[in-house]
UniProtKB/TrEMBL annotation:
It is found in: Nucleus. The keyword Metal-binding applies. Putative transcription activator involved in regulating light control of development. GO terms for molecular function: zinc ion binding. Keywords: Metal-binding, Nucleus, Zinc, Zinc-finger. This is Protein FAR1-RELATED SEQUENCE. The keyword Aminoacyl-tRNA synthetase does not apply. Belongs to the FHY3/FAR1 family. Residues 137-159 are annotated as: Disordered. Transmembrane segments: none annotated. InterPro entries: FHY3/FAR1, Znf_PMZ, Znf_SWIM.
Length: 159
């Protein structure tokens, strides 16, 4: 069903008339009684269908609200994180690792042997990391650093 199959049937304001929340009741044009609630508060946009939370993509109901308000720009909160991500802060790197980890763990959980291999790898990596032995590159004498490579650690970018 296309975005044209929906329309904003009601707008509710909560709190301050300008800075408060606005809730748009979005319904099917052909099936009255089926409604979704698009809530706008500051820079955040949420829909009761929860597609943004599940898939990271704005739903038809959000697009319907944007069309209703004659907005031609998708809010930053609705843009895919991977399209905005630069990967240079700890939080962004953590988000990227969580996404990747989720995919790996989902696949590994389907097979007992793969699960055990991944689990052992992660436990070994954690043990190695906790021991303080972190290799992050070679140890050139030209860099003026006499720290052996197994204890040398590089911080990527200040957060």
């Amino acid at each position: 069903m296309m975005i044209d199959g929906f329309e904003v049937v009601k707008t509710l304001a909560r709190g301050h008339p300008i800075f408060g929340k606005k809730v748009y009741v979005v319904g099917f044009k052909q099936r009255w009684g089926v409604f979704f609630y698009v809530e706008c508060s500051g820079d955040a946009v949420k829909c009761s269908c929860r597609k943004m939370e599940r898939e990271g993509l704005p739903c038809r109901h959000i697009f319907c609200m944007l069309r209703h308000n004659n907005l031609s720009r998708i809010p930053d909160c609705c843009a895919l994180r991977r399209m905005r991500r630069r990967g240079d802060t700890k939080a962004e790197r953590l988000d990227e690792m969580k996404e990747l980890g989720h995919q790996v763990f989902d696949l590994a959980s389907e097979d007992a042997q793969e699960f055990q291999e991944i689990k052992e790898f992660l436990e070994g990596w954690l043990e190695h990391r906790r021991s303080g032995a972190v290799a992050v590159g070679d140890n050139n004498a030209a860099d003026g650093d006499s720290v052996p490579p197994m204890t040398k650690k590089t911080k990527l970018i200040e957060d």
